[in-house]
Amino acid sequence: MVLGAVGSLLLADGPGPRDVTPAPPPPKPVSASVPTAAVPMAGRSRWRVWPGHPNRKIYLHRVRRGDTATGLAVRFHAWTAELRSLNHLGRHANLYTGELVRIPVVLSAWRRDHPRHRARHSRPHRSKAPVHQTRSRHPWRHADASRAAVRRTIVRTARRNGLHPHLLLAISWQESGWQQRRISSAGAVGAMQVMPGTGRWISTYAGRPLNLYGLHDNVTAGVLVVKVLKQMTSGGRVIGSYYQGLGSIREHGMYRSTKHYVRNVRYLRRAIRHGWDPS
To answer: Residues of the chain with pLDDT > 90: what percent?
Structure first.
């Protein structure tokens, strides 16, 4: 996730790593790391209340072959860090076929992408007044594009800016699972998880205002951030700065979570280079 206010990504000490621990990379063989998406509504008995956690509900899932913590979090609209903590998965987040895991589903995201199931998990409406539909306050564009479409957009935009697409694909998968309709708890937006302040700042490099809620502009913002970082630093610091901020790394060094993030992105980049394509 690109952090910080305007320009803070490069020049200042950003707010530090986000509250979501970077997701672990897919296990080998990489082709089996992300199972086919399934709708987790086989039975209402699988849902549990999570006291003290508004906008969350626990879904009980029986682990299948190929399931990973990252894959489950993406499929069921959950934060990987919460899933790992809730199930005490430890550092490597190992899952075993047949075991029952609790997935802390973010209800707002789940209802948005599964409107026909919304009523089942909403509180009863106390008023008899009709519910009026309102337009989203976000100017989404191509927000529900397929992962394949997001992948093509990243590849095309990276090449247009003289960058190899494998790194950008790895960052985007780590950040959002190649999904555009995503807003983190910190406010980062889209497939490249760009903060609004960073979006305004990087728009000066694009030469026009970028709409982070649009797929093309969101990817353009993320690609331009990486391009600028490559001009100012190199190696793992480029990846780490996308997550933590270059100014913060220069002053404090990489946080532990940032080092974990860099390892994950590098692993994903190698997997993509060798043909892994979950789209």
So the answer is: 42
